[in-house]
Amino acid sequence: MPELSRNGVRIDDSFAEAFDMRATGLIITADTLAWARIAATSLTGFATSIIACGVEAGIDSELSENETPDGRPGVRVLMFAGSTSELQKQLQSRVGQCVLTSPGSACFAGLEGVEPLKLGDAIRYFADGWQISKRFGGRHFWRMPVMDGEFVCEATTGLTKSAVGGGNLLLMGRSRETVLRAAEAAMVAMRGVADVIMPFPGGIVRSGSKVGSKYKGLMASTNDAYCPSLRGLTQSALAADIASVLEIVIDGLTPEAVAAAMRAGLAAACALGPEAGAARIGAGNYGGKLGRHHFHLKELLP
Amino acid sequence: MSALRFSLRETPPQRLDLSALIPERLADLEMAEILRLSVTTTRQPLCVGDVFTVHPGKADEVVIAGGSAWFDEVGAGMTRGTLSVEGEVGARAGRGMQGGRLLVRGDAGVFAASGMRGGEIEIGGNVGAFLAAPGPGERLGMAGGLVVVRGNAGARAGDRLRRGVIVIEGDTGDEPASRMLAGTLIVCGQAGARAGYLMRRGTLVAARAAPLPTFVPTGSADQVFRALLARAIAAVSPAAAALLGETLARFGGDVATLGKGEMFIRVGQIAATG
Description:
Structural class of chain A: alpha+beta
EC number (chain A): 2.3.1.101
Number of helices of chain A: 6
Main location (chain A): cytoplasm
Distance between the termini of chain A: 20 Å
Family (chain A): Belongs to the FTR family.
Radius of gyration of chain A: 21 Å
Number of strands of chain A: 18
Largest sheet of chain A: 16 strands, mixed
Oligomer: heterodimer
Largest sheet of chain B: 13 strands, mixed
GO biological process, one term (chain A): one-carbon metabolic process
Subcellular location (chain A): Cytoplasm
């Protein structure tokens, strides 16, 4: 079979294996976009992987005054979890600790879903009896007196059960510098895709993991097949020209959104070519038996 | 197909109970059955055919052509469709309404929207006393929906309001928002004397008012809420939406009772209590 390549970048005949997840969305507004970003960044902190964070979360998009319920600048945040109960738990503790507390913030539903998740309904008790319920225009809000004025929070947000987690790209190259450049270029392109988040730091993960460990009780451990320093010592997936590997993980509200993000990332990384960027691009999977969604790289190429 | 139309032939001989002329009651009726529907309020039997000429049409869109202050219970108990009256109506218009849309182009009498649970009412003219108030023996007034009055309202508008939004684009009589439990009452003109009297919770917005001594100034930290409310009602009442965007002072009260209500008044238009 002829090897796939684009612009000199080798493309593995492989696929990303992704899983069904539960997800929700929020719109966070503030007096300025900068403060909306601060609240959202805080909310989505320590939310890289459900392996240990409970939830995977990130900023989907920034919203202008015309796109938010209260006419102030804002951001849309997406949160993904393995179960509805975990998503609910993380939602209320994160909004309670990171958005309620952030100066001038307000918080609204960011997704119409099949079921409601408690948002203000869970946080209103903070107001100690001074909370005010308001229903109009088909929506329900809670107003809570706080020290800088009033925190307005929609009562519920939506839950989707058809979200997808674990779309990914593996960028491999001849040095750490070129691989990071390719990953950064891919991230710039993928941030423009709606309804997806890349939950790792800057969207990029350098410690890709495999399922299981030699140590009892560890769910995941280093993906030794893609560690350059273990080439020759383990069942390596890397040829001699690969000195560094970075992964981008994508969670999306729909399989189509994940595919669109992978397509955008592939195009941007390939455009750099093998010298300046990645020499090879692959995708992580578990043999196709664990996840329902398979995103084949050859179908997503530019 | 056009609307199902009831044209008043002459001045009715008695007050009429028009609660039967709502879309869901008329939907499955033959013309003969419609003409036999009772509208009487006295011992003298009176049916639709005695006072109205009925023009067939789709029952989801009912029109009462002509109006009278003797048209009582118009749209009462309505749950869907639209009902419009081209003139004025009498007492208890839209009472207990749960859905749909009631449009009265003229004035409405007392107890309009009383006990309303949902839907929309628009009154083109003025409305009598006890708008959205509880009926006799009831504990709650309006508990959902939207009411817009283009003219003025009588006394006690929004009495015991529990939920929903009322917009009065003109002035109100005495004691608007009396005994209010929750919900929102917006007065684009002058709120009458003793506004918010014994209000427990809820929101009263007025362009001009004289707050009782039992309302305390709280400072205003409410821009987000007011922006949300303004956007929700901008399509039905640009005047109310504009008022919400102005600089308003906020008062908390009525501290003679629970005191968790709030009153917004345009800065510079806060009169001393007389």
